[in-house]
């Protein structure tokens, strides 16, 4: 994406859904087809093909179907293992959720598969070192790459962790690892960010009586906004905490959610 240039500005669909982007120019379209919103960080990959640094196409230009990086493997790199170990992820959880690794991209691959085992989407967590780009004859600056990159349409997917727990409350988290941790106690679902469209909330309402919004501490305002939107159609509440959901154990998660629901 380093070689792409700005083609146009237009309205962002996510901002419009939130009642934002009144000027209608938050979304930037680049020459390689990818789009980026500077308001809400909405991202849409190129229409035909996308390259990450040192990698092959993620979207096949002929079929437009999703693909993992070519060197995807189920054997996780040491950076991913060390990072996941901080959150006490078990070996069985890593296998169950089919987490993988791309060494060429230094990326943890977190996929979502459909009932027929087809790949619906995947999110990558970058662990590569920040490269530098030249900005002058003798000066450089770090390239700003996103920590998470998402491929596919997560807004169309309800990836519920442990949906068969006999509890009428579901907890929505930012990321998959947090959802897996919370899913040890409650049904949980990653938002792959901090937003869920109304169509997703309507589908959750059919299955759960209560929806808890538990985002990372730096997204507390987003959690409140999402809960307010959700409360228009279902019983919604915010789960505040001092740390990310994935940093708590099962007992702490149960206590934090119970306290938030009673508040």
Keywords:
263 residues, alpha+beta, N-terminal domain of TfIIb, Dna Topoisomerase Vi A Subunit, Chain: A, domain 2, 3 domains, four-stranded antiparallel β-sheet
Describe the structure.
It is a single chain. This protein has 263 residues and is of the alpha+beta class. It folds into 3 domains: 1-44, N-terminal domain of TfIIb, CATH 2.20.25; 50-152, Alpha-Beta Complex (DNA primase DNAg catalytic core, N-terminal domain); 169-262, Dna Topoisomerase Vi A Subunit, Chain: A, domain 2 (3-Layer(aba) Sandwich). It has helices at residues 13-17, 78-85, 91-96, 176-182, 198-205, 220-230, 250-262; strands spanning 6-10, 27-30, 35-37, 43-44, 100-102, 107-113, 119-126, 132-134, 140-142, 148-152, 169-173, 188-190, 210-213, 235-238. The strands form 4 sheets. It has a 4-stranded antiparallel β-sheet with strand order 1-2-3-4, with no helix packed on it. It has a 4-stranded antiparallel β-sheet with strand order 5-6-7-10, with no helix packed on it. The longest helix is centred in the C-terminal third of the chain and has 13 residues, at 250-262. The radius of gyration is 19 Å and the shape is globular. The N and C termini lie far apart (46 Å). Mean pLDDT is 82; it is low at 47-64.
């Amino acid at each position: 994406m380093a070689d792409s240039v700005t083609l146009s500005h237009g309205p962002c669909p996510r901002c419009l859904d939130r009642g934002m982007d009144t000027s209608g120019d938050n979304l930037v379209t680049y020459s390689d087809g990818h789009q980026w919103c500077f308001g809400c960080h909405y991202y849409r990959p190129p229409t035909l093909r996308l390259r990450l640094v040192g990698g092959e196409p993620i979207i096949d230009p002929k079929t437009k179907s999703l693909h993992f990086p070519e060197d995807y493997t189920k054997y996780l790199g040491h950076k991913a293992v060390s990072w996941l170990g901080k959150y006490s992820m078990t070996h069985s959880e890593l296998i169950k959720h089919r987490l993988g690794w791309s060494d060429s991209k230094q990326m943890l691959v977190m996929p979502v598969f459909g009932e027929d085992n087809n790949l619906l989407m995947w999110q990558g967590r970058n662990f590569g070192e920040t490269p530098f780009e030249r900005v002058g004859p003798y000066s450089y600056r770090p390239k700003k790459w996103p920590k998470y990159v998402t491929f596919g349409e997560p807004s169309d997917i309800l990836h519920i962790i442990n949906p068969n727990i006999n509890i009428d409350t579901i907890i929505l988290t930012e990321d998959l690892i947090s959802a897996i941790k919370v899913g040890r106690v409650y049904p949980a679902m990653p938002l792959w960010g901090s937003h869920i469209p109304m169509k997703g909330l309507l589908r959750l309402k059919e299955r759960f009586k209560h929806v808890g919004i538990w985002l990372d501490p730096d997204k507390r305002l987003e959690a409140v906004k999402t809960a307010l939107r959700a409360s228009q159609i279902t019983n919604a509440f915010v789960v505040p905490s001092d740390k990310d959901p994935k940093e708590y154990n099962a007992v702490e998660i149960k206590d934090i959610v119970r306290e938030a629901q009673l508040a």
